[in-house]
Write a structure and sequence with these properties.
The protein is mainly β. The chain is built from no helices and 8 strands.
């Protein structure tokens, strides 16, 4: 059984007991949340697709500790303008 859920503007395929990392979602550790924007539900034998959402269905989740994110530094150079500088980018957004 799986469902397709819209969370903070993005669509995710979720199943039971699955861990999912969602950017820009502020949830305390251990707090329960529910998502009502369920776009599709499939239980193996039949599937139901909403227009735009499936009515009467919600997905429940629990917040866990956020993982550590690897950060990268890169040196930015422009040849003609003689400009040098460092640019920091977190790797979770790319």
């Amino acid at each position: 059984m799986y469902a397709i859920v819209e969370i903070s503007g993005k669509q995710f395929k979720v199943e039971k007991k699955q861990k999912l990392f969602v950017n820009r979602l502020d949830v305390a550790e251990g707090k329960k949340i529910s998502f009502d924007n369920v776009l599709m539900v499939n239980d193996g034998s039949k599937s139901s697709v909403g227009t735009p959402n499936v009515s009467g269905v919600q997905v429940d989740a629990k917040g866990v500790k956020a993982p550590k994110i690897r950060q990268s530094n890169c040196l930015q150079k422009e040849k003609k303008k003689r400009l040098q500088g460092k640019k920091w980018t977190p790797s979770s957004y790319y």
